[in-house]
């Protein structure tokens, strides 16, 4: 069951598992951890945009899309969601548990490190 924190919708593990396992045209999942963390383990098919790159890329992001941000514990992804909300994005969500709570399938290596924001659309 999702809830709200500081104006950001918080998604819990069960809801994220559902999103990962179904077609999600309406929600874009983005991992915001560092490359080294992503390489160790990540959710298959979820692209990486490290948190420190969001300020350079957000102006090219589609404000009409729904975004779910993922990090290690839910703190960095919450900050990314807050930053984007402050910059006019109304459809941002945080995965509250972070990868620490993730029990689903994981992959290793640099599967999808975003170089150009157009890759996620």
Quick overview of this protein structure:
This is Sulfurtransferase. The protein is an alpha/beta fold.
Which short descriptors sum up this protein?
121 residues, alpha/beta, Oxidized Rhodanese, domain 1, 5 strands, globular, transferase activity
Please describe what this structure looks like.
The chain has helices at 13-20, 35-40, 54-57, 75-86, 98-101, and strands at residues 3-5, 8-11, 27-31, 66-70, 92-95. The chain has a five-stranded mixed β-sheet with strand order 1-2-5-4-3. It has five helices and five strands; from the N terminus they run ββαβααβαβα. With 121 residues, it is of the alpha/beta class. It has a single domain (3-112), classed as Rhodanese-like domain (Oxidized Rhodanese, domain 1, 3-Layer(aba) Sandwich). Helices cover 28% and strands 17% of the residues. The model has no long low-confidence stretch (mean pLDDT 95). The protein starts with a strand and ends in a 20-residue tail after the last helix.
Q: Helicity range of the residues?
A: 25-40%
Outline type = globular
Per DSSP E runs of 2 or more residues, the count of β-strands stands at 5
The name of the CATH topology is Oxidized Rhodanese, domain 1
- Rg calc: 13 Å
CATH superfamily: Rhodanese-like domain
Number of domain modules: 1
Content-based structural category:
alpha/beta
What is the count of DSSP helices, taking H or I runs of 4+ residues? 5
Can you tell me the CATH class?
Alpha Beta
Q: How far is the N terminus from the C terminus?
A: 27 Å
